[in-house]
Amino acid sequence: MIQIRSARAVDLPAVAAVLLDAFSDKMRIIFGRQPQKIHTLLEAMYGGPVQRGYDGVIVAERDGRIIGTLIVQPAFYTAQESRMIENLTVRELGMPRALMSAFKLSLFSHTPATDEAYIGDVGVVADCRGEGIGQRLMAYAETWAREHHRSRMTLWVAATNPGAVHVYEKAGLTTIRTRSSLLLKLIFGIRHWYFMEKRLD
Fold first, then answer.
1. Cβ-proximal residues to 185 (8 Å cutoff; 6+ apart), any chain
2. CB atoms < 10 A from the CB of 99, how many?
3. What is the pLDDT along the chain (201 residues), one digit of tens a residue?
4. How many CB atoms lie under 10 A from the CB of residue 120?
5. Pairing status of strand 152-158 against strand 192-199
6. Residue 63 class from Cβ within 10 Å (0-12 exposed, 13-18 middle, 19+ buried)?
7. Whole-angstrom distance between the N-terminal and C-terminal Cα of the chain?
8. CB–CB of 152/199 below 8 Å?
9. Which of 55, 66, 105, 130 has most Cβ atoms within 10 angstroms of its Cβ?
10. Could you tell me the fold of the domain covering 2-199?
């Protein structure tokens, strides 16, 4: 039986593992080719908000195993948490790669409005894909968004990922604009991106 729920601090290593599995190619491009370092950074990234009670880090669990995750942004960070993440990134990657990683991450940056539930990092482990878990995560995220008084759900998705686009369309999102980026093409091999939205009001 699959349970969809908000993550607890004890889930963070498994959340990091799901993200590393689901986005391994992108993670290598951003952070380098050392999976343990990437895992450490991913685990730390959501540690502060979850430990403070932020419930927008959502997981799918089956028989005690975390098999999927979805992050609703913005997950706010305190100044201390931001410094901790920066220091950890420099320690794990070294200053040059840390700076390059920050630049590459900035290419995906999106600043949600106060009424916006921005969906990021929807991932399912490889051996559980095709079972509708992404759809269930999206349904839970919509309920979360309504309960937190957000008027719309949004996300960016690569145009080259038709499977993900299909999941999001089934969840009621539609493409409202397309971005073409030569820089993203050069770094990640993907030029065209869709911004999708579902109005909730």
1. 191
2. 13
3. 899 999 999 999 999 999 999 998 999 999 988 999 999 999 999 999 999 999 999 999 999 999 999 999 988 899 999 999 999 999 999 999 999 999 999 998 899 998 999 998 899 999 999 999 999 999 999 999 999 999 999 999 999 999 999 999 999 999 999 999 999 999 999 999 999 999 998
4. 18
5. antiparallel
6. exposed
7. 32
8. yes
9. 66
10. Aminopeptidase (3.40.630)
Cα–Cα nearest to 85, from 23, 50, 40, 54:
40
The angle at the Cα of 13, spanning 69 to 63, to the nearest 5 degrees, equals: 65
Residues 6+ apart with CB under 8 A from 72: 56, 57, 58, 117, 118, 119, 120, 141, 144, 145
Q: Crossing angle for the helix pair 24-31 and 12-22, nearest 10 degrees?
A: 100
DSSP state string for 108-163: T-----TTEEEEEEEEE-GGGTTSSHHHHHHHHHHHHHHHTT-SEEEEEEETT-HH
pTM attached to this predicted model: 0.92
